[in-house]
Amino acid sequence: MPSASTAPIESSPAWLDALRARLTPANVREHATDGRVYALLAAISVAIAALTLLYPSTPTYDPWAWIVWGREITQFDLTTTGGPSWKPLTVMFTTAFAPFGDAAPDLWLIVGRAGAVMSIILVFRLAWRLTGGSLPAKTIAGVIAAMALIISSSFVRNMTLGNSEGLLVAFTLWGIERHMDGKYRQAFVLGFLAALLRPEVWPFLGLYGLWLLLIDRDRRTLWLVIVCGVLIPVLWLLPEYWGSGNFWRAADRAQRPNPNSPAFADFPFWEVIKRTWPLMLTPVKAAAAFALAIAVWQWIRARRQGAVIVIALLALAWIAEIALMTQAGFSGNPRYIILGTTLIAVVGGVGFGWAVQIASDVVARFGGERHGKALMLGTGVAACVVLLGATYHWAGPKFRTFGDLDRALRYQAELRIDLRKSLAKVGGGKHFAACGPVATGMYQVPMVAWHIDRHTMDVRMDPDPAGGAAVASRSTGRAPWAPRGPFPAGYRLLVPQRSTHLYSTCPPKPGA
To answer: Where would you find the membrane-spanning parts of this chain (predicted)?
Structure first.
């Protein structure tokens, strides 16, 4: 007899059984992808991410705060009032990395960048898989989708600096694949992990959980949905209450957008849509519309290509949700859109692939049985070359911006390197902070807090006239120095570095 934990739920009404039958996909693959394939892809992604540390690297503002919070959790002294919004999954990683000391920031960069690499692999794989057909058709679909992701939404910049959207995209695409494989519980767990990165995932996961309960009567599924449903508010809200005394601190912080946020536009919803439109290449948007039209036609005729329709609708729903939240006063940061533009890239890649397949099929009809396959392959390759060449008109300028991006990323890494070297020259971060309150520029607060072993709230933006220390730097190569001089009486320059100057009313540590 089955155990209580695995026994099916008691019989349900006939109408519910009928609904369950209608909701269960009829085209589940007979042979699901071996889970070891995804383990291998994840291992490859981590290895590539680790190799990227050979490039000058640093986290950006939000990741530095997560890294500080991870250390504070291990010290049972969490303070979240000075920093970005809380993200449970990121801080789980940084808490695990905190015992490794100075290596913790780089360990987080490996995780964040591994998510980005996995995203690129999965975007290629999903577009390939949805396209089907000939090898040239699947190849062009995957290449276009991956290229569209790499050059859209400042993806490379955000992921290189350790933001979490790469992980969000990776878990979502991975979940879609496992759903297509018929591994619905695994898909739900991957959606749960995505929900620990962005609250916008919650309604989608909730609907999927309800669908899963309707089609799967196993008690394990019921408990999985219940446990994950409980853990989401627990992991989002309780640590915030510990760190700030306010369950809703993350939501309050998200409603204090930066000055350039679309939240300040006359009509924020429409402003988000306008800013999203140019993030995607025109040919990719056109190909996505083409693929969606074909998928709808196929669905009406033969109940096929439903996955392409659902992915397109998910993309539009995600963008609309971000726009609605911006209308409600949230920040509407462009990187929040990355998941939506990624899904459009997948559908656009499928559109390119189907165009190649159609051209190949048309030409193959004139070749007969003897030459048809050769003509199909040759036409497919030729169509790939033509489409890639035509797309370069739009993609070329995007790729050429990578030179400027390289300089910007190297400068951000200089800020971290110069701060570390400067503090070493005065006796270390703890000695530097022992002089009194430490001030720095707004965008450097969490990085300075990490290096001087203080809470982010302990780092101020104006030097204390009564005495203390200051880390003056420029957040970009063209930004002004912050804090601005002249400094209060008693502050003197201790260390001038390329991008960072240390000031203090106390002398350096003897022998430093």
So the answer is: 37-55, 107-128, 140-156, 187-214, 221-238, 277-300, 307-330, 336-355, 375-395
